[in-house]
Structure prediction request, 406 residues.
Amino acid sequence: MMYLKLAWRNMWRSRRRTLITVSSIFFAVIFAILMRVAVIGIFEKLIADTVSLSSGYIQVHHSGYWENRSVDSTFEESPKLTAILNHQQEITSWTPRLESFALASSGDRTKGILVSGIDPQKENSVSHLSNKIISGRYLSNGDKGIIIAEGLAAYLKLKVNDTVVLIGQGYEGNMASGKYPVIGIAKLGIPEMNKGMAWLPMASAQELLSTGARYTSLSLLINDQNKLDDLKQSLIKQTKGAGYEIMTWKEMIPELDQLFQAKMAQNVIMSGVLYLVIAFGIFGTILMMLNERLHEFGILIAIGMKKGLLAGVVVIEMVLMSVVGVILGMVCIYPVVLYYHEHPIKLTGDMGKSTELYNIEPVIQMSNNLSNFIIQGYVVLMIATVLSLYAIFKIHKIKVIDAINS
Prediction:
């Protein structure tokens, strides 16, 4: 306790020195956190946008459906399955979907698209599709119209109240065809999806595909991705023998998971380089502080203070400054990260175009996950603490006469 008091008093005896040391750690924490949350945020948004509009974090479908994704592999509504999903605390929301590929035609233009029959209310709780409407309005259960993606509307030269023709194959080989007025146009963040998706009310989709009260899948959102595999196993156990197949988004969209893992590996290398730069910066500050205090150390040793005691106090002093710098950095950068989480940075020009080449929305939405702050703060604190141990070596090598005369 006495060492701690001495170290705390020494910190504020020279405010300029303390300010320089704390500032070096403060900015190190800020740079480390910003780099981490920017990279993580980009891919969190990409994954969230992709799975909410397509597979869900977990999907329940008929056994074998994912291999061919045919409407012949649909399943009927099941009150038992609905009860199971509603009683799972980890599931925040879920929605039924009836999906099929079809040709969309307008005038002399035709394009292959994915048509999704949805329950408007449940779908909105999963994909927030109503927030993506840029023209017209969102669907309601009684509608007979369609919502199409912005890129598809541009290709087919469609606007609200125009008519689009859908042609495809329905349930058990039936012909599927229909004409639908465009009720709304939605702009999706994923460029590839924005070019080829459309949504019908569930009743209209079931009539188009002649399926009756059947679905191709149930897409689930969960509150904690760390429980993804545990929830999957729980659902498999509860639905055993019912003919369902339960898959996670990592199994259904493995290329997205591989891209994320590759980017995280790249981020580890970049973080290593940043930590090395941070370490040199902090070490330079520590060297400056030790050399500036050589005369002081020499006097203290000359009047009888043991080198071990002196080294201990100096190390504690440096650790306290590191803790102050880390906490200040985390506290000051959090509001900035929170702001850019709610108001993503839009990328324009060549940078925006380059992200679209990888099918990524050209925005940077910073992650507000507290673990990113804690991990980066902890790593910088450990770097500063380890480097502070150099003071022990430096003080034990002090020659009293040379130090006093410095």
Residues 2-49+257-404 form one domain.
